[in-house]
Amino acid sequence: MSTVRDRVLTGGARTTGVLLCLMLALLGAAWAARDLTAARPGAEVWWAWLGGARGPRDATAPASSLLDPLLALGALTAAVTALRGAVPAPVAAGTLLSLATATALLRAPLLWMPGVGRLPGTDTGLTSWAQRTVLAELALAAALLVVVAAGRRGAGRAGRHRGRPASGPETAPSAYGVVRAVPQAADPGRPGRSRKGPARTVGVLLAAAGLTVAGGELYRLPALGADGYRKALLGDATDLPALPPPPAHWHAAVLALLALGAAVAALRRASWARPAAVAAAALLCAHGAGALALAVHTGRADRLAALSGTDRLELATAAFLAVTGLTVLLVAFRRGVPAATGGAGGALAYGSAPGAVRPPHAPPPPSTLPPGW
Questions:
Q1: Cβ atoms of 238 and 115 closer than 8 Å
Q2: Which terminal CB of the chain, N or C, has fewer other CB atoms within 10 Å?
Q3: What is the largest CA-CA distance in the chain?
Q4: How far is Cα 255 from Cα 292, in angstroms, rounded to an integer?
């Protein structure tokens, strides 16, 4: 099998992707730093990030959410992954695509929500900067998608123009042919692809988590009604605890979509399944752990028996998402299929002389080599 398809990112695409990731990380870190320095005490900011009471909207009100440090950490991780040459190209490309997709889906609602610029008691300049931040993050996410697509096409053209694999060992000019040896015990697949056992585990866990979140949204639909749920899904800025984060129902829908998409990719053992699973699992784990921490802080966990069935179900769901997300992270971070080498699945040259030893599955060279060989 040719290695041209394995090279989905050129060096220029990796470098550009790293720069875009660093810019995304700076935007998220800037909002988190603003709240920790210019807003109320750090402990209050932390509980506000988790969805607690924020108090009146004024110059000291937290203007970010837990998504800001999460996206900043995810962008830094993607930058390091794309920068490392030892990381297979499909994994690097999947990391950049996962970051871009999550950023676009989680930031998109502020493009259409009414009342973003008319929050009572909120600094107008702060609101304007929040809008510019969202537009910049969406532009950077779109740029990441373009970079990965352009890098994929460039690698394919480079391999076709050269007429040989884009990577692989140099062969002797006197060799009659080149074959690819595939050991019987090798795990077939592109470099970085998940192995069968971990892929199935990740797929089943993410599918269960995604269906759980989707089921919770369907459970709330009759109580809100179709029109009420549509308004809650699309959101209103006056209902948001902070400027940048999406509405709660939109956030839940995005979590379900990312989890189910990553589950399908993992079960099919797609080359980009591992970074997609890591991104979905990190968001699920943070969502569940944050809800549990807030329940403990507000005392809801201490009066579990007195809570309604719906509240107990929400806490159970949060615990399940936290444990599932953490488990998927531990499994998805395991090494995937290694890159082929000349001694194990790599290119092997043979036929430099009529009597030379050749691989058992290779056709024999002619008894008389053509002139020039």
A1: yes
A2: N
A3: 91
A4: 17
